[in-house]
Amino acid sequence: MQEWGWRGFKIVQSIVERLPRAWAYALAVFAARFAWWFSPLARPRLEYNLKDACPEASPAEIRRLSWLNFRNHAKAYADLMMLPRTRVVEMRPLMHVEGWEHLEQARAIGKGVMVVSCHMGSYEVTAAIWSATLAPVTFFAEELEPRSPSTWRACAR
Fold first, then answer.
1. Rounded distance, CA 128 to CA 55, Å?
2. Which long-range contacts (C-beta less than 8 Å, at least 24 apart) are formed by 81-85?
3. Do 75 and 122 contact (CB within 8 A), yes or no?
4. d(C-alpha 52, C-alpha 18), whole Å
5. Backbone φ, ψ for residue 3 (5° rounding)
6. Per-domain residue ranges of the chain
7. What is the 3-state secondary structure (H, E, C) of the chain?
8. Nearest Cα to 76, choosing from 132, 16, 11?
9. What is the pLDDT of residue 122?
10. Is pLDDT larger for residue 122 or for residue 43?
11. How far apart are CA 151 and CA 4, in angstroms?
12. When you count CB atoms within 10 A of the terminal residue's CB, does the N or C end of the chain come out lower?
């Protein structure tokens, strides 16, 4: 990300973190629509991968899946941008857990627990709720280049 792009991103983040969730999502969906239409690389690459993952899907279904992916990814970024100013009590209703008793049983042994989850929705929000209400969270993630976005993301988490 160029320096001007990083500065623009930080300006957008400072606006988004102050918006109500519905407005932040609306802005994210608008940005996703723009990116989906005008992305020279991301959309074709995504649709190529979707064709491999869903060989039975029609071109219209691939197109719909790619749009949904862009939309959901943008909303996850909006969630991440809002994290620094969001209170846990506001976020807690967003997380639904099934099988909590199994986790408690494993934690009671006292050796720590490794939880593996699929990458769906805003996992950063889930991690923030989890770390504020249950136990510390550690991520294994690829470091982004350049360092500025990677550092921002780690701090927001």
1. 36
2. 81/12, 81/13, 81/16, 81/17, 81/24, 81/156, 82/16, 82/17, 82/19, 82/21, 82/24, 83/17, 83/124, 83/125, 83/128, 83/156, 83/157, 84/17, 84/156, 85/17, 85/18
3. yes
4. 40
5. -55, -45
6. 3-156
7. CCHHHHHHHHHHHHHHCCCCHHHHHHHHHHHHHHHHHHCCCHHHHHHHHHHHHCCCCCHHHHHHHHHHHHHHHHHHHHHHHHHHHCCHHHHHHHCCCCCHHHHHHHHHCCCCCCCCCCCCCCHHHHHHHHHHHCCCCCCCCCCCCCHHHHHHHHHHC
8. 16
9. 75
10. 43
11. 17
12. N
* Residue in the structure block whose two tokens are 């941008």: 81
User: How distant is the alpha carbon of residue 47 from its chain centre?
Assistant: 20
- With beta carbons less than 8 A apart as the criterion, state whether 41 and 116 touch: no
Report pLDDT for 7. Answer: 82
Which amino acid is located at 77 in the chain? Y
Amino acid present at 73: H
* Closest to 117 (Cα-Cα) out of 142, 143, 92, 98: 98
How many residues are given for the chain?
157
pLDDT tens-digit readout, 4-52: 777 888 888 888 889 998 999 999 999 999 999 998 899 999 999 999 9
